[in-house]
Design brief:
Length: 68
């Protein structure tokens, strides 16, 4: 259990950064083009949250294997 907590703490910054960056990018795209194609349920928030979680999970896997 301690290993999972340590991996979450090490990877939280990556997930937050990707979620914030993708929210800005998807939000600008939706606002400028009025296009919601490619967004999960047409929502910028949901899509950016999923991107952040996927990035965090990938970083956790890399850290667990010993990459960083």
């Amino acid at each position: 259990m301690e290993t999972i907590q340590a991996l979450i703490q090490q990877s939280a910054g990556v997930g937050a950064g990707i979620a914030f960056g993708s929210a800005v990018g998807f939000g600008l795209r939706k606002m400028r083009l009025g296009n919601s194609d490619g967004l999960i349920s047409g929502s910028v928030f949901v899509t950016s949250a999923v991107c952040g979680l996927v990035a965090m999970a990938a970083m956790m896997a890399i850290s667990y294997v010993g990459g960083f």
